[in-house]
Amino acid sequence: MIQRSRRGCWTCKRRHKKCDETRPVCERCTQAGMACEGYETRLIWGPSDTTTPKTGMVLNPVRQSRPQRRLRRSRVVDVLPDDSLDLGAELSDLYQVPSPDQLDLLYLQYESNGQASTENLPSDEVSNRLMQDFSTTGYQTLTGRDGQEGLFKSDILPLCNSCVSLRQVCLAYQASLDTEMVRLTPIYMQSALSHYFNDLNTPEKLELDATLATGVLLCSLSINSLYIWTPLLKGLYGVLQHRGILTAAQRSPLEDHLLEVIALLDVPSFTLNRITRSMEIWKLHVASKGQVGIEQTSGLPYSLINLFAGLGSPEAEEGLLGWAGELGEEFIQIHLWEAFRFAGVLHNRALLGNDQNTSPPAASPMPRSEVVRMKIFASLQAIVDSGAFTFRQPLARAIFYPLFIAGLFAENYQQRRLTRLAFQHLMEDSQERIDGSTEKVALDIVTNVWETGKGQGLTAKLALATKFAAELNIELHLY
Questions:
Q1: What 3-state DSSP class applies to 392?
Q2: DSSP characters over 264-331
Q3: CB 145 within 8 A of CB 337
Q4: 239 touches 454 (CB < 8 A)
Q5: Per residue in 114-153, pLDDT tens?
Q6: Where is the Zn(2)-C6 fungal-type domain (predicted)?
Q7: Backbone φ, ψ for residue 477 (5° rounding)
Q8: Using CB atoms within 10 A of its CB, is residue 215 exposed (0-12), middle (13-18) or buried (19+)?
Q9: Nearest to 298 by CA among 381, 229, 375, 400
């Protein structure tokens, strides 16, 4: 059995590899294409009753390897506490991964993944081919719901030539799209994370758009691969704050775009079983600017996203029911936005414990939940019948959130049949986009709630869905 040195570099310790202890950087990290984090002494923190492992870090994994994940009826896995975020913390704390626990969590979940060794990066020939494929077609799966390429091709792709971490995450993403190369995804992902964490601790790299783009793509790939991902948002928030982007009177188009994408990822209502608290980036730094029109990435009106950023408050339902709407370029957009609006109403009631299933007082403008649910399904039916999954796939994929919410609370055969049909359309589309199906897991959660939540209210069913996601050790992003 290999004896691992206690004097090895921090990267090898975290990877549980034998370090050759070459200084200032070890050869093992160099050969694996990873940033060697050196040998300096580090402070260790964690519960006082926890025995520190020989790596010098308190490891608290919250996720099993993918082959072992099955929905089960057992105790919910303990996840990272919600109070890990302090918006008044020093900047040096904000642009780093919150703790060794979370750094290990992000890094180790990709280790081999039951598919491949993380020992060495693939050959230059393989990497160059993947990069070529990503630059020509792969990146298009990351474009906004409007189907436009936006700034990705013109502003982000060229940054791969000068940023190792960005190039590595692009390679990981492209490998995940190729059935013959998908085994390489965790190898590239570990390398990308290693370089990215190093970038977050290099002051001059905090000024680069490439660092923000890398963090966003790490989130995107982690979401698609059903990995824990929200701890990455804290690092992104710190970079935004360090560069003054959050408070800048004027920003470049790319800075504006990256800020909006990060803010969208941070909207808490769009993630089931989120293990970190929201930093309210959208509410504080996007909604406050009074943007109008359609947000490119989500395909939703700014005014509607502003309401979703406040979900979980009594005022949110009033705002959603009174939303005046926006002008769209085609009818399917109107159906989509109506589905979102009413799904938000149901979701908000579940968060507040207000099921509203009984008839409200005569003077009340609030519709019963069963009426709201029917409105969502009517919009979903119109989208499915329109042929959008054939002709407007980027926009049609946006039904994920309202479909999940309405499906979760579906009460009869007709509603559940439409739920399965719409999820089937999403799953057929996802097979062409990326390995694995987030939609399949979402449908599994919904059907398990149908089986175990009979007769229960909105709040109880949402709690069951969250429990099932926690048992799978995933953060399920819903848009």
A1: coil
A2: HHH-GGGEET--S----HHHHHTGGGT--SB-TTT-SBHHHHHHHTTTTSHHHHHHHHT------SSH
A3: no
A4: no
A5: 444 445 788 899 999 999 999 988 888 776 544 445 678 8
A6: 8-36
A7: -85, 135
A8: buried
A9: 400
Q: How far is CA 476 from CA 265, 368, 443, in A?
A: 12, 28, 12
Token pair for 75 = 């105790």
Residue 174 · residue 192 · CB < 8 Å: no
Residue positions counted in the chain: 479
Nearest to 357 by CA among 427, 458, 265, 444: 458
Residue 6: predicted pLDDT: 60
Tell me the per-residue pLDDT of 376-394, one tens digit each, with 9 for 90 and over.
Answer: 999 999 988 887 666 566 6
DSSP assignment of 225-255 equals: TT---THHHHHHHHHHHHTTTTT-SS--HHH
Element (H, E) at 476: strand 476-477
Q: For residue 97, what pLDDT is reported?
A: 42
The ranges of the chain with pLDDT < 50 are 1-4, 41-101, 112-118, 145-148, 358-359, 432-436
Helix (H, G, I), strand (E, B) or coil at 477: strand
30 sits in which H/E element: helix 27-32
